[in-house]
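Progress against Task 2.4 (sequence-to-structure conversion) is shown through the following example record, which the project officer requested during the mid-term review.
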Amino acid sequence: MITNVLNPKVAIFFLSFLPQFIDPKSAYLEEQIAFLGLWFDIQGALILTIVAMVTGYFQAMLQQNRSFWNWQQKITGLILIGLGIKMLFTRK
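Structure tokens generated for the chain above:
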């Protein structure tokens, strides 16, 4: 995940969080750090892949459901009308 490298908040998180899971007396210090970083990337990619697949499934399901879109338009219209009425009675 290249964006994690460029994000300073993620670097600070790794510098503060990961050392507690690393044995400083071990001869494999670099390998431990690399493994935890790789594990984070694999886990993140897996979760994002699952989220994308579930989202795609629901998108396909909702696109075919006409009653959902009818209700969505009615609810959106009611929200906009409510906001308009609130603006009408709001003083500056």
